[in-house]
Amino acid sequence: MVGIALTIALFGFILTLVIDVIRRDGGKVIAALEGHSWKAGPTEGRPVTIRFNPRRTEVELEPLWEPALRAAA
Predict the structure, then answer these.
(1) Which of 9, 15, 25, 38 could crosslink 31 through cysteines, CB 3.0-4.6 Å?
(2) Separation between Cα atoms, residue 72 and residue 66, nearest integer Å
(3) Closest CA relative to residue 11, chosen from 3, 53, 22
């Protein structure tokens, strides 16, 4: 009988904590579950144009060190 009473009291305590967290941070939890940031809003500003040059220029660089000679297997 005492075990049942302690279990019910423990569940009541946990339920009180969960309700308190939902009351304080419910909006954050809902926003996170929907995949949105709670504080982030739309940013104002002009669109940014990114230019990409697909041509690649290769530059021959000398190695910084001489590779060591290894014995052939």
Answers:
(1) 38
(2) 18
(3) 3
- Which pLDDT score, from 0 to 100, does residue 64 have? 67
Answer whether residue 7 shows pLDDT above 70: yes
CA-to-CA distance for 7 and 13, rounded, in angstroms? 10
pLDDT score of 47: 81
Q: The pTM is what? A: 0.42
Give the per-residue pLDDT at 45: 76
R_g over Cα of the chain: 31
